[in-house]
Design brief:
386 residues, Aspartate Aminotransferase, domain 2, 42% helix
Length: 386
């Protein structure tokens, strides 16, 4: 499968989850789209892309066409879904549109992605509100532990709960539907950071019972970077605004997010090619392969390094976070040094970070990976820290 990517064959690449990697066939589609734009830029970008100007030769805009297969893949109606540059933009849209008053609070978990947590801090600060962080025991004994922690952390003035679908640092697949049910019983809306979800686990947004869902397509769904999606429940769309004010302001959900400043739309327009490739290669088989390899990786690495992994398999998707031996260190500086040494000396690219008093490696398992890649990582770490 590695032949379908431009990845350097001399590097063991176990870091697909960070910024993704686009298959060559999808990159070829993107190049064709760029060529088509350059043949008649004004017609393509002003008339055909969004319908901002009349294009009687088309039944719908190119963006609306591109949304349809993506929406189907993630269990959404096309009219409830728009493209955004990435999850950060999508979550900023939600947070900046949230009506907050002094004394209100936004709840996030300790697993929240740093940029999203900062966006929550900024939104709360503007309104004189606060952000409360719910501590989560890692690894949890079960998904129910996460639900119970969120339930206990809700307050009388909680106006929003932000939760990850797949946690970036711990790689845990969180029980989003169960969390949403708890929040809905209290009348509290839920926004989901699904950055790592589409293309790594099954996603059925409409079935989750949440209010907003943002995700990336360039991480696991084979789209060129950078492109993501933002879904909003129909009754939440009227008051949802793009964080950058432009031509679509005040003209409804779809126009506000599609009619904005000049940009390169080919990442979004090529996203259906990524979905088509997932389906052509057999999406359920890919999902099962990546999950099985991630779980094998966790078992192999903990056995080799004499550490332990208490994470339930049901909370693992296509990535797994594994603790390193104590001798590897425990600080951000230790993590940075070891990560760089693995890249420069061992030609291994992998996410490695400090958390919970020790170092962790987060192994991403894409279909171009195999167990031998994990064996190389196991040996490289063991050679340094025992």
């Amino acid at each position: 499968m590695l032949a379908h990517w431009l990845l350097d064959p001399d590097v063991t690449y176990l870091n697909h989850g960070t910024v993704g990697a686009t298959p060559t066939r999808v990159l070829a589609v993107q190049r064709q789209l760029r060529d088509a734009i350059e043949r008649h830029p004004a017609r393509y970008l002003l008339r055909e892309l969004t319908g901002a100007q009349p294009a009687p030769w088309r039944q719908q805009s190119r963006l609306r066409e591109a949304v349809q297969p993506v929406a189907s893949f993630v269990g959404a109606r096309p009219d409830d879904l728009v493209f955004v540059a990435n999850v950060t933009v999508g979550m900023n849209a939600v947070l900046q549109s949230l009506p907050l008053q002094p004394g209100d609070d936004i709840v996030v978990t300790a697993l929240a992605y740093g940029a999203v947590a900062l966006a929550a801090d900024a939104a709360a600060a503007r309104a004189g509100a606060t952000v409360r962080t719910i501590d989560v025991v890692v690894p949890p004994r079960s998904a129910g532990d996460i639900v119970d922690a969120v339930r206990a952390g809700l307050g009388a003035r909680t106006k929003l709960v932000v939760v990850d679908h797949v946690s970036a640092m711990t790689a845990l697949v969180l029980p989003v539907a169960e969390i949403a049910e708890v929040c809905r019983a209290r009348g509290i809306p839920v926004a989901v950071d699904g950055a790592h979800a589409p293309g790594s686990i099954d996603v059925d947004i409409a079935a989750l019972g949440v209010d907003w869902y943002a995700a990336n397509l360039h991480k696991w769904a084979y789209a060129p970077r950078a492109v993501g999606i933002l879904w909003a429940r129909p009754d939440r769309q009227a008051h949802l605004h793009h964080p950058v004010v432009s031509w679509g302001r005040g003209r409804g959900f779809l126009e506000e997010f599609e009619q904005h400043a000049t940009h390169d739309p080919t990442c979004a327009l090529a996203a259906p090619a990524g979905i088509a490739l997932l389906q052509e290669w057999g999406w359920p088989a890919q999902r099962d392969y990546m999950h099985a390899l991630a779980w094998q990786a966790g078992t192999l690495l903990t056995e080799r390094w004499r550490t332990s992994l208490a994470t339930p398999e049901s909370m693992i998707g296509a990535m797994i976070a594994v603790p390193l031996p104590a001798a590897a260190g425990s600080t951000d500086a230790d993590a940075a040094r070891l990560r760089l040494a693995l890249l420069e000396e061992d030609r291994i690219e992998v996410q490695l970070h400090a958390a919970y008093g020790r170092l962790w490696v987060r192994v991403s398992c894409q279909v171009y990976n195999e167990l031998d890649d994990v064996e190389r990582l196991a040996g490289a770490i063991a050679a340094r820290v025992g």
